[in-house]
Amino acid sequence: MNLAILLMDQTRADMLGCYDHPQVKTPNMDRLANAGMRFDQAYCASSVCTPSRTSLFTGQMPTHHGVLCNSDKEGEKQDVPLTQANLISELPEHRHLYIGKWHIGHKKLPSEYGYQGHDFDGYAYPGSGVYQNLTFDSVPLGDNRYEAWLKEQGYAVPSVSDICFGDNPNLQIQEFYARLDAPVEASIPFFLVDEAIEQIKLAQKEGKPFTLWMNFWGPHTPCVIPEPYFSRYQSEQVEFEPSFHQALEGKPEHYQNIAKMWGVWNMSEDKWRQVICKYWGYIALIDDAIGKLLDFLEQQGLYDDMFMVLSADHGDAMGAHRMIEKGEFMFDQTYRIPLIIKDPQVAKPGSRNQDMVYLHDVTATFADLGSNSVPDSFDGESLLPLLRGGSYQPRDGILAQQNGHFTPYPQRMWRSKEYKLVFNASGKSELYHLSQDPGELVNLIDNPDYQGIKTELFERLYQEMQRYHDPQLTWLHRMMKVI
Questions:
Q1: Are 357 and 426 found together in one domain?
Q2: How, if at all, do strands 37-43 and 357-358 pair?
């Protein structure tokens, strides 16, 4: 069986058409959902790229694999040992294809783990240093395959225009959005699909099954997208959620500092609407690129029997609580992710699952497909029983681990279907009654009516942190009775 993971970057589940967004249309993601299962309660273990992606690769929680932040400074991250079980280790007969963004560990590249295809280091945005007029500067350290591909395809070097930054004068280094003045086919999502198709053709020539891991650089900012996607959505289509107008009441002061850092705290509503529209446009662009890949697979007779996963490493606040991107905050907009699995043996095509699952459960699922077992080092669980109607013991909650992004700010979250507890190690903690307050507007941490619930949730969080040898465990133990 051939397998694929199509991983988007920084994608809010509720802003996809296949997750019932009223404006954004994603017909190709819908194709996958209609042929498989959509998970409505899927979560990442950390809301920043490197810890989340390393969890997907290793099948482990961040404190088990040791990558707790995005920092590229020496000594603050570590690489996954080459001999450790990982996403593809239980599929030795496959040709392993890697396309797009890496951002796992510290220095090692996909090829060192047995992948063929791309060797982009870190974030390594391939438009940096290539697009004319683009400020964002995250240039690949090695060869830039995208730049070479543009030349091979006969495309002129693209430029960008209609550029938008946040309002912080000291952070004019990353555009929120810009128009790509180039054909759609020259955009980065279509480059990735073109490269994936070429790698699949090579696997076909060898007569080998393949695993494809294709990582998009979007809809993460900078949302650099061509027409018609740049103008597809209009300001009047944006309806702000309640938390936009009740921003950060009762929340840690640090959250407001993040919004101010990005230059969005006092940003005008009209500018906010434009930022959101371009994020939506990027999603539509990716959806069309996915459509090209699915069409190719169907033409080659590969689609029907292929096991395919569509997901994202984490979400994006994108206006919720008047915040943007991700960082040291644990709202559902950044932790709840899309997860769609097209399994040829799915029991109920087009079904929706309400079990609480992790992104790194996909890792265990791949191992189960390859060897009918899950390595002991994995923390996730195979999703095959859910997909195929087998026996499954539901989780009672999800643990998330965050050490900081822009600055150290350790956080731990225990989220059940009913409640969310956020332990902020150096700030005001949070408690939300999700069934009554899905927007996480009212922080109940100091409400005496919830003392019993708070105690129960702290005990559950403590138990789960013990399982993963969490370095914040001692501090939690000392504080949990007095918060």
A1: no
A2: parallel
CB 429 within 8 A of CB 443: no
Of 361, 312, 364, 355, whose CA–CA distance to 337 is shortest?
312
Question: Which contacts of 423-432 are long-range, i.e. CB under 8 A and separated by 24 or more positions?
Answer: 423/458, 423/461, 423/472, 423/476, 423/479, 423/480, 423/483, 424/252, 424/254, 425/472, 425/475, 425/476, 427/252, 427/253, 427/254, 428/250, 428/251, 428/252, 428/253, 429/483, 430/251, 430/252, 430/330, 431/457
**259 and 124 in a common domain:** yes
- Looking at the domain assignment, is residue 151 inside a domain? yes
Say if residue 370 is in the same domain as residue 271: yes
Residue 419 belongs to domain spanning:
407-479
The reply to whether 145 falls in a domain is: yes
Same domain, yes or no: 383 and 414: no
Residue 200: exposure state from Cβ atoms within 10 A (0-12, 13-18, ≥19): buried
Nearest C-alpha neighbor of 326 from the set 405, 273, 426: 405
- On whether the CB atoms of residues 431 and 454 are closer than 8 A, the answer is yes
Per residue of the chain (483 residues), what is the pLDDT tens digit? 999 999 999 999 999 999 999 999 999 999 999 999 999 999 999 999 999 999 999 999 999 999 988 865 544 568 999 999 999 999 999 999 999 999 998 889 999 999 999 999 989 999 999 999 999 999 999 899 999 999 999 999 999 999 999 999 999 999 999 999 999 999 999 999 999 999 999 999 999 999 999 999 999 999 999 999 999 999 999 999 999 999 999 999 999 999 999 999 999 999 999 999 999 999 999 999 999 999 999 999 999 999 999 999 999 999 999 999 999 999 999 999 999 999 999 999 999 999 999 999 999 999 999 999 999 999 999 999 999 999 999 999 999 999 989 899 999 999 999 999 999 999 999 999 999 999 999 999 999 999 999 999 999 999 999 999 999 999 999 999 999
Q: Identify the sign of the CA torsion 201, 202, 206, 210.
A: negative
The tokens describing 301, both together, are: 């007779």
**Total tally of structural domains belonging to the chain:** 2
Q: Give the DSSP H or E segment for 150.
A: helix 145-152
Q: Which amino acid is at 243?
A: S
Residues 427 and 321 in one domain: no
| Phi, psi angle pair for 218, to nearest 5° | -145, 170
